[in-house]
Design brief:
It contains six helices and seven strands. With 128 residues, it is of the alpha/beta class. It has a five-stranded parallel sheet, with helices on both faces. Helix 1 links the parallel strand 1 and strand 2. The radius of gyration is 13 Å and the shape is globular. The protein starts with a strand and ends with a helix. InterPro entries: CheY-like_superfamily, Sig_transdc_resp-reg_receiver. This is Response regulator.
Length: 128
């Protein structure tokens, strides 16, 4: 079964790159550009993992992670940030579903490894 990823990223180029990398790795990706769209997707779609850019315009995506924790306590969240906020790991205490934080610029193999890890998926190359 293909794992379903919700990708929240407001930068079009980064969103395209992450979306393509995740799709090429075999994930079913829903990419959104706003926190409200992410919350709608959470209520409407059966998702396996959230990949959230921490800053979406002037907003923070932490309310999306919090909503996910209430709606689906088991759904893992991977946060991506270029911000120096929370550099001491404080994000992990702000939402119980946050499993990993990746700093921008994000290496695509790191992103894929984190998503593989939190979904329990063994990458095709490692399985052979």
């Amino acid at each position: 079964m293909t794992a379903k990823v919700l990708l929240l990223e407001d930068d079009a180029g980064v969103r395209f790159t992450f979306n393509m990398a995740l799709q090429e790795a075999g994930y079913d990706v829903t990419a959104v550009t706003s926190c409200s769209d992410a919350i709608s997707a959470l209520t409407e779609l059966p998702l396996d993992v959230l990949v959230l850019d921490l800053k979406i315009g002037e907003e923070m995506s932490l309310p999306v992670a919090d909503y996910a924790a209430l709606l689906r306590p088991d759904i893992p969240v991977v946060c991506i940030t270029g911000s120096r906020l929370f550099s001491g790991g404080e994000l992990f205490s702000l939402s119980r579903n946050i499993r990993w934080v990746l700093r921008k610029p994000v290496n695509l193999s790191d992103l894929l490894s984190m998503v593989d890890h939190v979904t329990g998926r063994v990458p095709a190359m490692a399985a052979s």
